[in-house]
């Protein structure tokens, strides 16, 4: 027999009754029933119930052990009695009577529980991540993550893509987020950067003629963490295709991404492949107040500015008269809600930094609230009829400059749906957001800036750049969104050197700047570059959605905390003086105050 096990802890069934077996694993739980000890023995594959009584030499050994100790059990497989079968376990019809036990590693008193899924302080969970990873849900999430990545690879290869690895040590990029810099020992005073994304390399692969590239790529950005973005590193399904339009990118990738969700949906519905809605950016910002809308939410925002150009409600009339907008957010079926529900929404809006959230109540066709009173019941009824709102529907209003009103309306749309229980949690709703603006106005610096990806092809090409107001130009850029999260972003690339230079000139960079900052790409485009495009899908966010986790730390093996610290390994840490000298680096203390 094998030194440690003849079977795993998830393998034994009724068909094995009578066999002598050897199992090894962790003591998950112990239950003492007065002379009879039950031990749940756990390994990566499952759980098996071990039984020891006074006739077993294993009893005193197991009694003395703390939970999470590692043991080897020799014993006989027995059928459980009818009343003790555990239908929730694959091994639930059997138990192993222990004839012997060998302690492989005795556990000290635990700093945190492993059995169960109770909440525990994050600093303890991360410091003892090796214990945290033994917990059932987190362990299962990590296994799911691995299976999702494997499924992605299989689907990409099936779609004709080949996986290539791009460099990890590269040049610093002046665009996007802050780089992680790596000092060069051989070249004193110079630095490599960890890649924020393989963007330029994958485009160079297309110029080199590789046609369909993909990679499960590690990316590094020195930015502040949030629930859907971990500090430091993340992984993306990165891809690029030659001789394609954006329609062909969508048609190729819908079966891949949609197929992954379908494979791991576990009974939840998924938007059918080939029918992902394609929503222009401007429409998304109007109807949903967001460029990553949750389509499980049935609420649609409407622009009702024209209704208040002449109104008894002076505040809205003034806002519209000075170039602002009024957006209406339906609150369906709220006739039974008290005024407190509406006032609480207004208080919430103020707590988020907004001036407030107006509202109108309606019960049995009768309107309530100062907006309805001043605007007039007849006008309000006509507006409700126009929008298809019923006699027991209320609504909220977001008013102000278009950008702020859209932001408030979008957040209110989400909050109203949450409060009213309108979101079906058992669905994955996917859509493409398309036609992003190529440029935006940077109010702080009073200049035009790229709004998304500077390497994208502007719609209309160089002619649009030469003749149009930059703020009216859209790009061949697109995002893939699922349940309110951006899970992928991509574009058709600008492969023309002249168009590339002109695009950067509009944001204040010269041809010399382009050659200096993006010299490899710029030179490559002068030697025959095919039309190409692609995207990058966030592996971490996709897995988070599939697992139903609320935070990326719940699907990541060894994440950092909110302060970008690895509590397990103690990173970041000071470098030894010898290391700094080799790198020709001196640490300068920050001035206080």
Automatic annotation (TrEMBL):
Coiled-coil regions listed in the entry: none
Major localization listed first in the record, in broad terms: cytoplasm
Binding residues for ATP: 221-223, 486, 538-541
Record localization: Cytoplasm
Residue sites binding L-aspartate per the record: 175, 221, 452, 493
Keywords, in A-Z order: Aminoacyl-tRNA synthetase, ATP-binding, Cytoplasm, Ligase, Nucleotide-binding, Protein biosynthesis
Family the UniProt entry places it in: Belongs to the class-II aminoacyl-tRNA synthetase family. Type 1 subfamily.
Domain Aminoacyl-transfer RNA synthetases class-II family profile: 145-559
Alphabetical list of Pfam families matching this protein: GAD (PF02938), tRNA-synt_2 (PF00152), tRNA_anti-codon (PF01336)
Region entry Aspartate, spans: 199-202
Entry's EC annotation: 6.1.1.23
Organism: Novosphingobium jiangmenense
Name this polypeptide is given: Aspartate--tRNA(Asp/Asn) ligase
InterPro entries per the UniProt record, alphabetical: Aa-tRNA-synt_II, aa-tRNA-synth_II, aa-tRNA-synth_II/BPL/LPL, Asp-tRNA-ligase_1, Asp-tRNA-ligase_1_N, Asp/Asn-tRNA-synth_IIb, AspRS_core, GAD-like_sf
Lineage of source species: Bacteria, Pseudomonadati, Pseudomonadota, Alphaproteobacteria, Sphingomonadales
Catalytic activity as recorded in UniProt: tRNA(Asx) + L-aspartate + ATP = L-aspartyl-tRNA(Asx) + AMP + diphosphate
